[in-house]
Amino acid sequence: MSEARRCFCGGFAQLETSWTKDNPERRFWTCCRKMIDKADDARKRDKLLWFFIVIGVHIAMLSANANQHKGSSGTKTVLELA
Fold first, then answer.
1. CA distance 57 to 7
2. pLDDT band (50, 70, 90) for residue 1
3. Residue 28 falls within a domain, yes or no?
4. Residue 54 lies inside a defined structural domain of this protein
5. Same domain, 4 and 28
6. Are 18 and 28 in contact (CB under 8 A)?
7. Which of the listed residues 18, 42, 68, 77 has the most CB atoms within 10 Å of its CB?
């Protein structure tokens, strides 16, 4: 059973093992908030990714709509003015 150590943040530190080529099986203590921070970063990346996907879909729809109605009234589309 591992001993309970406190982290600098006040939580309990976690004992982990390195599996890198330079330090195989090296044990070290990590902050308990590491996983929470990683999860928060992943959520932020996911939100940003979905934002860009939605914007891309809207641009594609506007472009397709502009191309479909191009020249029907003799006026320029918004995309042609840009």
1. 45
2. very low
3. yes
4. yes
5. yes
6. yes
7. 77
Residues 1 and 28 in one domain: yes
For the chain, list the strands marked E by DSSP.
14-19, 24-30
Residue 78 resides in a domain: no
As a whole number of angstroms, the distance between CA 73 and CA 10 comes to 68
- Torsion angle of the four alpha carbons 61, 62, 63, 67, in this order, in degrees rounded to the nearest 10: 100
Q: What is the pLDDT of residues 33-43, one digit of tens each?
A: 766 666 667 77
The first and second tokens of residue 33, run together, are: 């908030």
Specify the amino acid at residue 43: R
The number of residues making up the chain comes to 82
Q: Residue 26 corresponds to which tokens in the numbers above?
A: 């090296």
The residue to which tokens 């330079």 are assigned: 22
Q: CA-CA distance, 82 to 29, in Å (whole number)?
A: 56
What predicted TM-score, i.e. pTM, was given to this entire model? Answer: 0.36
The residue segments making up the domain with residue 45 are: 40-72
